[in-house]
Amino acid sequence: MARKKKIIDYNDDYLNLLAKQGYHIIGNHSGIKPCKWFHESLRGGELCYKAKFYGIRSHQCMQSTSCLQFCTNSCVFCWRQMPEKEEDDTPNNSFKWDDPKFIVDGLIKEQLKFVQGYKGYDKCPPDRLEEAFDPKLLTLSLTGEPTIYPYLSDLIGEAKKRGRYVFLVTNGALPERLEKLENLPTQLYVSMDAPDEETYFLVCRPHSKTGWEKYLKTLDYMKKIKGKTRTVLRMTLVRDRNDHGWEGYAKQIKQAEPDYVEVKSFVFVGGARNPERGLRLEDMLKMDEIREIGKILANLTGYVLTDEHVSSRVVLLCRDKKAIDERFIE
């Protein structure tokens, strides 16, 4: 007799947990929660790496997801409070998916509630507060795997129709979903977290035996859409887990030919602190180490080490002068 999934109970428990953590839940599976940089910006402080690298101001970014509960991987470094049992982390056939317009309406409405909380705060720069009431960027990266949502193309189109930029962050496990996108995001991020298949299974912990194969197909897709939208490979590095095999990473960069590569240390927060993951604060790479890795990859690929954001422990590589000149969206 086949094992019955506990997906309904898990969803209820998980959504309640997220709500307690400050997430605003929209419908059955979407949500929004500003990151620390949103709050830092509206308190008059530093902006995030998206501002430094691409010109997107942190207080105008909607840190969101179309898939709160579900993912195709259980990455060891993820901040997500995920179940460690893979079988409980996928939607069943009867799961009800929400309408894209409903989701975008809900995300903008909840974002403005977060902004509203800064009215009357005397340390909030007036110009930033005014800008925050006109969010510019919908970032689908908060938690879960957004390409699981079956109407993702329509969601992207709905956000763009309202004058929003869309950054889509995916682990690349569902290239067939990306191939079906009629509306491309403003910027497509693909996580590049392993130099080879063995490391991929140890660090990304895919739920499918074909995870690596599908990820490589996603790299081919990135090259296919070159010039049609902006593309990024984003690395999340963990000491003694995936901080090796630079030739393997370089090969993937050459395969995908992205506009940009972000080399970043993982952060020891949230689910990454789960003792079952075996990570420690010391497993975060130092900024000097990230810079050195950036130089190595630049030498191996011909990409140009262009910028850095020290607080986020990340450096930016650009494919060529054109990518450098055009990296700022605003």
What proportion strand?
15-25%
Instruction: Supply Rg.
Output: 19 Å
How many runs of DSSP E, i.e. beta strands?
10
Distance between the termini: 57 Å
- Architecture per CATH nomenclature, i.e. the level-2 architecture: Alpha-Beta Barrel
Give the SSE order as H and E letters. Answer: HEEHHEHHEHEHEHHEHEHEEH
* Low-confidence regions: 1-10
CATH-derived topology: TIM Barrel
Quickly count the helices.
12
Structural class: alpha/beta
Count of discrete structural domains: 1
Quick gist of this model?
36% of the residues lie in helices and 15% in strands. It has 330 residues and is an alpha/beta fold.
Give me some keywords for this one:
330 residues; disordered N terminus; 10-stranded mixed beta sheet; 10 strands; globular
Task: Give structural notes.
- The chain has 330 residues and is α/β, with parallel strands linked by helices.
- It has a single domain, classed as Alpha-Beta Barrel (TIM Barrel), CATH 3.20.20.
- 36% of the residues lie in helices and 15% in strands.
- The protein is built from 12 helices and 10 strands.
- The chain has a 10-stranded mixed β-sheet with strand order 1-2-3-4-5-6-7-8-10-9, with helices on both faces.
- Helix 4 (100-116) crosses helix 6 and helix 10 (246-256) packs across helix 11.
- The longest helix is centred in the first third of the chain and has 17 residues, at 100-116.
- It is globular, with a radius of gyration of 19 Å.
- It starts with 6 loop residues before the first helix and ends in a 5-residue tail after the last helix.
- 44% of the residues are buried.
- Residues 1-10 have low confidence and may be disordered.
